[in-house]
């Protein structure tokens, strides 16, 4: 007869709304160097392969679209690697947060992909629309609308019965608080 009791797995508490919000802003700041590095590599590769000037990318709509797709793929890769390795990006480590699947388990690949896509629907339109508005004032109302849409996941969290962000509700994931002891283990 085995006298050892089964281990009790405790589900960490959901991180607070403000903590998730500040971590999100910090994540944006940390994404800037990632995006800039990818942009430099893209521009260098383009120049080496074609011999064209740097301005050739901005002069061609197809090359701009390809550039945008490369940047989105890089951001996708960054989040997938971080979330799958330990459930934390650098910003999440700083704010002692972790992305978990349902019941405190590691989030599955499909859940991570769904979470990224749901997030992208809210966050991705903002930057291109502001760039368009910078060049053409007719896009300004759309840029402001995208900024309002940017807040949708956080407004959803206020209304959600469990306080989950919109992308977490859709993907079946949670952002939880991690104690200092758990984080270092």
Mean pLDDT comes to 88
How many domains? Answer: 1
Helix residue percentage: 55-70%
Overall form: globular
Structural class: mainly alpha
The span between the termini is 32 Å
Number of strands: 2
How much of the sequence is in beta strands? Answer: under 5%
Nearest-angstrom radius of gyration?
20 Å
Low-confidence stretches: 4-8
- For the biggest β-sheet, the strand order reads 1-2
Give the ordered list of helices and strands. Answer: HHHHEHHHHHEH
Main sheet attributes: strand count, strand direction, barrel closure: 2 strands, antiparallel
Query: How many helical stretches?
Result: 10
What features would you describe in this structure?
- With 185 residues, the chain is mainly alpha-helical.
- It has one domain (17-184).
- Helix content is 68%, strand content 4%.
- It has a two-stranded antiparallel ribbon.
- The model is unreliable at 4-8 (pLDDT under 50).
- Keywords: Cell membrane, Membrane, Transmembrane, Transmembrane helix.
- InterPro entries: Pra-immunoreactive, RDD.
């Amino acid at each position: 007869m085995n006298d050892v009791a089964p281990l009790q797995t405790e589900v960490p508490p959901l991180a607070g709304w403000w903590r998730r919000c500040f971590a999100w802003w910090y994540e944006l700041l940390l994404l800037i160097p990632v995006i800039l590095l990818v942009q430099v590599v893209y521009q260098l590769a383009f120049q080496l392969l074609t011999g064209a000037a740097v301005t050739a990318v901005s002069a061609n709509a197809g090359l701009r679209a390809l550039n945008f797709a490369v940047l989105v793929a890089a951001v996708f890769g960054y989040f997938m690697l971080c979330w799958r390795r330990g459930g934390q990006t650098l910003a999440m480590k700083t704010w002692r947060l972790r992305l978990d699947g349902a019941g405190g388990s590691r989030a599955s690949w499909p859940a991570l992909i769904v979470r990224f896509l749901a997030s992208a629907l809210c966050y991705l339109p903002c930057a291109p629309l502001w760039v368009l508005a910078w060049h053409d004032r007719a896009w300004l109302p759309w840029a402001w609308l995208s900024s309002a849409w940017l807040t949708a996941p956080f407004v959803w969290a206020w209304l959600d019965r469990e306080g989950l962000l919109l992308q977490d509700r859709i993907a079946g994931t949670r952002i939880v608080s991690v104690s200092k002891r758990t984080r270092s283990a």
